[in-house]
UniProtKB/TrEMBL annotation, chain B:
InterPro entries to which the protein is assigned, alphabetical: AAA+_ATPase (IPR003593), ABC_transporter-like_ATP-bd (IPR003439), P-loop_NTPase (IPR027417), Siderophore_ABC-ATPase (IPR051535)
Any one Pfam family match given in the protein's UniProt record, by short name: ABC_tran
Provenance organism: Methylobrevis albus
Membrane topology: Peripheral membrane protein
Record-linked Gene3D superfamilies: P-loop containing nucleotide triphosphate hydrolases
Protein name: ATP-binding cassette domain-containing protein
Any one Gene Ontology BP term: iron ion transport
Protein family (similarity comment): Belongs to the ABC transporter superfamily.
Gene Ontology CC: one annotated term: plasma membrane
């Protein structure tokens, strides 16, 4: 940001217009990358004991999962915030992961605990993602018509979130205690009880989704100007935006399926990245948000596992920090 | 050429526009005037496909706005919507740079940057180029938004109340710029104005809307007539002749 405020002088006329737009990969981005890599390396190596090959493999899989969740959450939050033109709401705050939980509980309710456990995980995952994507699209698409009113959106999100959670709780009450334990285990984000079978399929979806988002980065910059201006600049709003929203739902489904809901992670990650790089241009914001997400998740897990002896689930810590940040953002106005 | 034929529009049950037909030949400045709520912005958004058409057809150079790909249209027609709220942290240069989006894939070439620089210069934004738009005054921001539409370098330019927030000097400069674009580059400008004297002084043609219908249409001299003005705006106003140009004393 500093390099941009300096051009506000009177000589800026020609120079800043002809000056190349700031590079995607600058010092700050390099620093973020370095932190993310260093934390990952530390995660892999700190206090390795016993069967090293086995421990390394276990850690590597977890690391991949941590990265993947961080990227899915970061990308989906950036897209969601851009498309709805706000800096506070995230898919999770709008009840998207509650929707996922509802789907899980409904499945357990319909099939019973054993039936649920007996489902082919990849197939189940695909079906869940599909259902979730369709529901999210039908629920959230109307909000993209016309001007999005923050208050209305927030209210809608809170109400939907409560609705989905209550429905899930209602269903949970109707199912037998054994099956309920299954529901419980998917309801909280925990990287220790990671769904290993899902890591690779989820990774494929996340990679694909992230690639699509990256390709759309310039479109996203334009979409951030608001519907009218974006359409005026030639963006096909009615086709592009629902498609990107489906992508958001898919990414949320993936990360929730893998570790459970990490409600406020997206908020921290995007707000943090925006402040760190001082830009909302997607070519910079997307990678920065991913790197911040990786640093937070990997760093957090490192501290939890080795500092606190695995006393708590990472999701809870992240949500606590996120809750504080959310309040700070609300108190500080829209940005 | 922009051809609007038999366009009607309702919101809910309320008729907003009723059977509008209008042809804008290529080149020239057309001012769209009329009281608040007459339907000016609605008509402009329909032409610029910001609002989907309900009835009737609109073509720009023969391309139907309802079916032409957005990008194709964005290379021919730029629009400045009336609502100028913009909630993005951008510098003036970055904002104006978005005007080049329809012509590339988002990456600015040197030629694009030259056009952006020229637009900045043209709207007196040189000193503000590096400023963030959320730190600008209302009039400065309005000029930046007009510059963005200008940088789109389209044959057709639709501006909804571009004089909003502008001081007298910049309002005059903007109207002269529009005139110049029409005269020297054969651009077609459709501009919504509330300042009727600007319309009289700078437009070739004045179209007046009232209650969703065309209430008057013609060269300034034909519209700057007390009877016509009273029919449009609902009160009597004097029109005086100053050195051969009509001046409407609407404020007295
Ligand atoms: N979303 C909406 N819902 C209901 N009515 C609307 C809506 N948008 C516009 N209108 C109505 O449509 C009519 C035309 O609006 P429009 O914005 O086109 O007027 P305008 O001529 O541009 O007025 P102004 O000079 O105030 O900008 C107005 O009566 C307005 O109240
Ligand atoms: Mg208007």
């Amino acid at each position: 940001m500093a390099d941009r405020t300096t051009v506000s002088g009177s000589d800026a006329a020609g120079t800043s217009a002809t000056r190349p737009v700031e590079a995607v990969f600058d010092r700050r981005m390099a620093l973020l990358l370095l932190v993310a890599l260093a934390l990952s390396a530390a995660y892999m190596t700190v206090s390795l004991r016993g069967n090293i090959a086995f421990a390394l493999e276990l850690r590597a899989i977890r690391l991949v999962a941590l990265w993947q969740v961080a990227v899915a959450v970061a990308v989906s939050t950036v897209l969601f915030q851009t498309l709805t033109q706000n800096r506070i709401l995230t898919p999770a705050i709008m009840g998207m992961d509650a929707l996922y939980l509802l789907g899980q509980t409904a499945l357990v309710f319909l099939l019973g605990g054993l039936g649920y456990a007996g489902l082919d995980p990849a197939l189940k995952f695909a079906a869940e993602s599909l259902i979730m994507t369709t529901m999210a699209a039908t629920l959230f698409a109307p909000m993209l018509k016309g001007r999005t009113d923050m208050t209305l959106m927030l209210l809608t999100g809170v109400v939907l979130g409560i609705l989905f959670r209550s429905l899930a709780a209602l269903l949970a009450r109707l199912i037998d205690p054994n099956a309920f334990a299954v529901v419980q285990s998917v309801s909280f984000a925990d990287f220790n009880t990671l769904r290993r079978d899902l890591v690779w399929p989820a990774l494929a979806v996340t990679a694909l989704g992230t690639a699509v988002a990256w390709r759309a980065r310039h479109l996203l910059d334009v979409a951030a100007l608001g519907r009218a201006r974006a359409v005026g600049l030639g963006l096909d709003w009615t086709r592009t935006v629902p498609a990107l929203l489906v992508l958001v739902a898919l990414l949320v489904a993936v990360s929730t399926a893998l570790v459970g809901p990490v409600a406020l992670l997206g908020l921290i990650v995007v707000a943090g990245a925006e402040r760190l790089i001082g830009s909302r241009r997607h070519a910079r914001l997307l990678p920065a948000a991913c790197l911040v997400g990786i640093s937070i998740l990997v760093g957090g897990q490192l501290v939890l596992q080795h500092g606190l002896g695995g006393a708590s689930a990472l999701g809870i810590v992240v949500d606590f920090a996120g809750g504080l940040l959310f309040l700070a953002l609300l108190a500080g106005g829209r940005r | 050429m922009i051809v609007v034929s038999n366009v009607s529009h309702r919101i809910g049950r309320a008729p907003i526009l009723t059977d509008i037909s209008l042809t804008l030949e290529k080149g020239g400045v057309t001012a769209l005037i009329g009281p608040n709520g007459a339907g000016k912005s609605t008509l402009l958004s329909l032409i610029a496909r910001l609002t989907p058409l309900q009835a009737g057809t609109i073509t720009v150079d023969g391309l139907a706005v309802a079916t032409t790909p957005g990008r194709t249209l964005a290379r021919r027609l730029a629009v400045l919507p009336q609502d100028s709220a913009i909630d993005a942290r951008l510098t003036v240069t970055e904002l104006v740079g978005f005007g080049r989006f329809p012509h590339g894939a988002g990456r600015l070439t040197d030629a694009d940057r030259a056009i952006v620089a020229a637009s900045l210069q043209r709207f007196d934004l040189g000193d503000l180029a590096g400023r963030f738009i959320d730190t600008l005054s209302g009039g400065q921001r309005q000029r930046a938004l007009v510059a963005m539409a200008h940088a789109q370098a389209t044959d057709y330019l639709l501006l909804d109340e571009p004089l909003n927030n502008l001081d007298m000097q910049h309002a005059r400069a903007l109207m002269r710029t529009l005139r110049e674009l029409a005269d020297t580059e054969r651009r077609t400008v459709l501009v919504v104005l509330h300042d009727i004297n600007h319309a009289m002084a700078h437009a070739d043609r004045v179209v007046a809307l009232k209650d969703g219908r065309i209430a008057a249409d013609g060269p300034p001299a034909a519209v700057a007539v007390p009877d016509v003005l009273e029919r449009i705006f609902g009160y009597a106003m004097r029109v005086v002749d100053v050195d051969g140009d009509p001046v409407v004393l609407h404020h007295r």
